[in-house]
Design goal:
It is a single chain. By secondary structure, this protein is mainly α. The strands form two sheets. The protein has a three-stranded antiparallel β-sheet with strand order 1-3-2, covered by helices on one side. A three-stranded antiparallel β-sheet has the order 5-4-6. Strand 4 and strand 5 form a beta hairpin. Helix 8 packs parallel to helix 10 and helix 10 crosses helix 11. The longest helix has 22 residues. The radius of gyration is 31 Å and the shape is elongated.
Amino acid sequence: MPDDVPTVPLDADLRATAKRLRLNFEATVRELTLDLRKPNDLARSQFLRRLRILGIDWGEPKTAYGKGTFKEGWAVAWEPGLSVAVVDAARHGTTVEEAAGAALLESAEDLVAVTEAVEQALAADLEQVLEPLLARLDGFAAREADIGQLLRTLPPLARAQRYGDVRRTDTDRLALVARQVLARAMAGLPSAASGISPEAAATLRSDIDGVQGVVGLLAEDDQRAWTDALTELAGRPSIPRTIAGRATRILLAGGAIDAYDAASRLSRVLQQARSQLSRPRGLRASSRETRCCWCTTVDSSASLMNGFNALMRKRSPMCCRSCAAPSGSGVPRPNPGRCGRAEPGNS
């Protein structure tokens, strides 16, 4: 853009900052590997993150290959359409720092959003909005009753503490909020997981996986408390199997239980499932007499259960004591249906 063309104050600050940080306005994609221990590279990272908060995607984070957490990768390219994004973002403020902070405050409307905003504020070094964001976080966390929401809040809180370590930011208060959120989530987790639908169980399992993925970033006391919560969750019979099984797998991988304990838990669950499957349809809550599908002899459901159990073990099933006809014996079948399955009889 020619120098004599009028621009909004935000654009002028953006260009002045880019010149100071030696970032060129080029349409060609350029790969950057930043070392956050170097002042200029740290300032570059914070500047690009502030722009992304404003919807000005000059840089896109990439995986940085190297040792340690101080490496950060970016792919930068200035496209003509970004000038329109600069004009649109100018409503938030006259400088990049001011506008990015105002945009974060505007977006922080619920617990998850304010937690993500805190993470972004720390990564972009927007200390002027960190205090009001933490105040909102305290309020939202205290009022939130949805255990899933509390669980989804923990990953960005844990990552934000990591940013504090890498970027030399004081995150003591953030750690306190994370500990409080974790405590409330763990206290309500068993009740929230009891007797829920398969869809809700799948969502809750995903939330648990999210916390498990960042639990290593938390304090050791918090990690032990999380393990205790999973242990209680895995041992409750009212918990859906998809959640109890996942909790057991996490405990086994973390060494909280051994292989024998995990196998015993799995065996108990499979026995319950097999008990349900071994009952023919229509007889799962009853022991009334039924008619064998092989020979039409009326027999008790107990002997028919034995036949179906044999089928489940992939052996030749015996339909009932009267005919004892194995599958493929050539005995005519008056009642159609799979061998070993009983049909209600008419007496």
